[in-house]
C-alpha cells in the first residue's frame, strides 16, 4: 500500500475559492483574471468577464425553463468558447452535465441519451463533416415528427425534454438556440443576477457535477460521475504542482485544445489553464500541419495532444525548426519529446498514470522531477493523498512488492460512482476502485504499469473496447467469429485491427466490413485493417479462447509482407 498526505488548499498565487464548487472557483478566477483573455477561436477573443457574463445569461435562461440543480444536461459539441460557456452555466446552477462525445455514431448517441437520462441537450449543429441534427434523428427516430414548441415526450427517449442548438437549425423539434437562451436569461426580471447568486450559493461540493463516458472492459461505455468538489480540488491540486497536467503553464500562455474537453484529459487541461490564467485556443482542424500553422499564427505555447503528433509536426518543419521550438510540454506524456534535447533518457521520466475514474492522474511527479536510480521505467509514486494496493489475480490477496497484480486505488478525488451502478459493484469494501490495470509496486512505492487486464486498446488518446468492436462485427450474419486487437503504431499509439472468420460460402471484402462499421461505431473504433482467416486456423487456447498474442504476431507478419 502506498499513501501520501494531501492538501486541498491552493498555494499562494492561485485563485482561492471560498468553497470547492464550480461557482466559487469561477468567481475566484474572474476576480483574479477579469479582463484577461481566456478563450479564442476563429479570430474571436473572450475575456474571463465575457465568459462570466455569457455563462450567467445562459444559466439564467436555463433556470427560466425549469432547469436547476440535478437536471441532466447533455453537451454535444466540439471544443469551442461555447462549450466552455455551456459547461460553466451547468456548473453554476448545480446541474449534472453529461459530456457527449462528438465521435458517437447514432447507435452510441442513442445509448448515451437513454442511459444518462438526458433531459436537456445542448448541441452544436455540426462539426467538420458531421451533421448532428441528422445524427440525432437517426439516433431517436421519433424526433422527426416532434415539435420543440412544447416539452418533448418521446417513447424511444423518454427523459429528453428539449434540444437547443448553438446556431440555427431547420428542425421543428429544436427548442431554439443558445443565443435564444442567453437573450431570455439576460432579459428575465425573475431569474436575475441576484437570483443566480442565490442559486450558486446553494451549490455544494458534494453535488454531482459531471458524467464522463469512457469505454470500459465491456461492450458498453461507463458513465463516470464526479462531484463539484472533486473537479475543483483536483484542478487546484494539479495546478499547484504544474508538472503533470497542466504542465509548465504560466499566466498569459496560449494552450491549443486539440483534445476533446468531454474527456478527462481535455477537461483538466481546460480547467487548469483557466486557473493559471492561460488562453484556451480552440480550432476544428487538428492535423499536424494545422497545429504547426497555429503555433506560428496564434503564438501557441502548449498543445494538448500526444507525443506522436509533436513528432509529426517536427518532421513537417524539420529538425530544430523555430515553431516547434517555441512549445513547452503540456503534459507528462509529451515530456520525452521535450526533454530529449536535455539528454534525459526516456526511462528516467515518470510518465504518470491516471484514469477518468480518478479525475486524471493518480501517480507521477507533479513537480516534473526525474525517477531515481533503480526505479527506471516506472510511472512514478502515488500522488499526495492517493492509496494503492496490488491484488494478486489468482489468490485475491495483496501481492508482494515487485509482484504483478490488479491495481486498486483510493484517492481524494475519486469518482462518486458510476451512473446506474450500485457502489458495491464499483468499489471494494474499503472504498478502493479496482482499476483493471496490471501493475507492480516496488518496496519503496514506485508503480510499474504492465498492461490492461482486459486488453483495452488505446488509440489516438481514446480507449477502445475490443469486445464492443467484436460485437459490432458479429452483427453481420456472414461473420462467425471476430477478434479485435491493438498493434503498436507510432502515430496512434495503437492501431485497431480485426481478424474475421466468415461462414462457409460467405463473401466479404475488407472495404465492406469497414463501411458497415462506420455506421455502427465511432470513427476511431473502426479497425484500420481487417484480415480474413478460416475459423479453424485461428490460434486458440486449450479452453478454445482466441490467443490474441499469437494472432498479433501473425498480423505483424502479414503487414510486413504487404506492399
Q: What features would you describe in this structure?
A:
The chain is 30% helix and 22% strand. It is of the alpha/beta class and 563 residues long. Among the domains are: 37-203, Rossmann fold (3-Layer(aba) Sandwich), CATH 3.40.50.980; 457-561, ANL, C-terminal domain (GMP Synthetase, Chain A, domain 3, 2-Layer Sandwich), CATH 3.30.300. Helix 2 (48-64) crosses helix 3 and helix 8 packs across helix 9. The model is unreliable at 1-11 (pLDDT under 50).
In short:
With 563 residues, the protein is α/β, with parallel strands linked by helices. Helices cover 30% and strands 22% of the residues. Among the domains are: 37-203, Rossmann fold (3-Layer(aba) Sandwich), CATH 3.40.50.980; 457-561, GMP Synthetase, Chain A, domain 3, CATH 3.30.300.30.
CATH topology of the domain at 37-203: Rossmann fold
CATH architecture of the domain at 37-203: 3-Layer(aba) Sandwich
Q: Number of DSSP strands? A: 27
Strand content: 15-25%
- Which CATH top level class of the domain at 37-203 fits? Alpha Beta
Give the low-confidence spans.
1-11
Biggest sheet character: 8 strands, mixed
Question: Percent helix among the residues?
Answer: 25-40%
Strand order of the largest sheet: 9-8-5-3-4-10-11-20
Mean pLDDT: 91
Distance between the termini: 50 Å
Query: Mind telling me the C-alpha Rg?
Result: 24 Å
Shape summary? globular
**How many distinct helices?**
16
Counting helices, strands and paired strands, the structural category is alpha/beta
Amino acid at each position: 500500500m502506498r499513501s501520501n498526505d494531501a492538501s486541498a488548499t491552493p498555494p499562494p498565487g492561485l485563485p482561492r475559492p471560498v468553497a470547492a464548487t464550480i461557482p466559487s472557483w469561477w468567481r475566484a478566477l474572474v476576480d483574479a483574471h477579469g479582463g484577461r483573455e481566456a478563450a479564442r477561436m476563429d479570430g474571436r477573443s473572450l475575456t474571463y468577464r465575457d465568459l462570466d457574463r455569457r455563462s450567467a445569461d445562459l444559466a439564467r435562461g436555463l433556470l427560466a425553463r425549469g432547469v436547476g440543480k440535478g437536471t441532466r444536461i447533455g453537451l454535444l459539441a466540439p471544443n469551442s468558447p461555447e462549450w466552455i460557456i455551456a459547461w460553466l452555466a451547468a456548473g453554476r446552477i448545480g446541474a449534472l452535465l453529461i459530456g457527449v462525445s462528438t465521435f458517437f455514431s447514432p447507435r452510441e448517441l442513442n445509448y448515451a441519451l437513454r442511459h444518462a437520462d438526458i433531459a436537456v441537450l445542448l448541441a452544436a449543429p455540426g462539426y467538420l463533416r458531421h451533421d448532428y441534427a441528422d445524427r440525432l434523428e437517426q439516433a431517436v427516430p421519433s424526433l422527426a415528427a416532434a415539435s420543440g414548441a412544447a416539452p418533448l415526450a418521446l417513447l424511444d427517449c423518454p427523459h429528453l425534454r428539449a434540444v437547443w442548438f448553438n446556431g440555427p437549425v431547420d428542425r421543428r423539434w429544436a427548442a431554439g438556440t443558445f443565443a435564444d437562451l442567453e437573450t431570455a436569461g439576460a432579459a428575465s426580471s425573475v431569474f436575475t443576477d441576484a437570483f443566480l447568486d442565490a442559486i450558486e450559493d446553494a451549490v455544494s461540493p458534494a453535488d454531482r457535477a459531471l458524467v464522463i463516458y469512457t469505454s470500459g472492459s465491456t461492450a458498453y461505455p461507463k458513465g463516470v460521475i464526479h462531484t463539484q468538489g472533486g473537479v475543483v480540488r483536483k484542478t487546484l491540486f494539479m495546478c499547484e504542482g504544474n508538472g503533470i497536467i497542466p504542465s509548465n503553464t504560466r499566466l498569459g500562455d496560449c494552450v491549443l485544445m486539440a483534445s476533446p474537453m468531454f474527456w478527462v484529459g481535455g477537461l483538466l487541461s481546460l480547467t487548469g489553464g483557466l486557473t493559471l490564467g492561460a488562453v484556451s485556443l480552440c480550432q476544428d482542424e487538428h492535423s499536424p500541419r494545422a497545429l504547426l500553422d497555429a503555433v506560428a499564427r496564434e503564438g501557441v505555447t502548449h498543445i494538448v495532444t500526444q507525443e506522436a503528433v509533436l513528432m509529426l509536426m517536427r518532421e513537417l518543419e524539420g529538425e530544430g525548426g523555430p515553431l516547434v521550438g517555441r512549445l513547452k510540454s503540456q503534459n507528462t506524456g509529451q515530456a520525452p519529446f521535450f526533454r530529449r534535447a536535455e539528454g534525459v533518457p526516456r526511462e528516467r521520466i515518470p510518465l504518470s498514470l491516471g484514469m477518468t475514474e480518478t479525475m486524471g492522474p493518480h501517480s507521477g511527479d507533479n513537480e516534473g522531477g526525474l525517477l531515481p536510480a533503480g526505479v527506471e521505467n516506472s510511472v512514478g509514486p502515488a500522488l499526495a493523498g492517493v492509496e494503492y494496493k496490488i491484488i494478486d489475480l489468482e489468490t485475491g490477496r495483496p501481492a508482494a512488492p515487485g509482484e504483478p497484480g490488479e491495481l486498486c486505488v483510493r484517492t481524494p478525488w475519486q469518482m462518486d460512482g458510476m451512473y446506474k451502478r450500485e457502489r458495491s459493484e464499483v468499489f471494494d469494501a474499503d472504498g478502493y476502485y479496482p482499476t483493471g490495470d496490471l501493475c507492480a509496486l516496488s518496496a519503496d512505492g514506485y508503480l510499474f504499469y504492465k498492461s490492461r487486464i482486459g486488453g483495452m486498446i488505446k488509440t489516438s488518446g481514446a480507449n477502445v473496447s475490443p469486445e464492443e468492436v467484436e460485437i459490432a462485427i458479429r452483427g453481420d450474419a456472414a461473420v462467425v467469429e471476430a477478434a479485435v486487437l491493438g498493434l503498436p503504431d507510432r502515430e496512434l499509439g495503437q492501431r485497431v485491427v480485426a481478424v474475421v472468420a466468415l461462414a462457409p460460402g460467405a463473401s466479404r471484402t475488407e472495404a465492406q466490413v469497414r463501411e458497415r462499421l462506420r455506421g455502427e461505431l465511432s470513427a476511431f473504433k473502426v479497425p484500420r485493417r481487417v484480415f480474413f482467416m478460416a475459423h479453424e486456423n485461428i490460434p486458440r487456447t486449450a479452453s478454445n479462447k482466441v490467443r490474441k498474442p499469437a494472432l498479433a504476431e501473425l498480423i505483424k507478419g502479414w503487414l510486413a509482407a504487404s506492399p
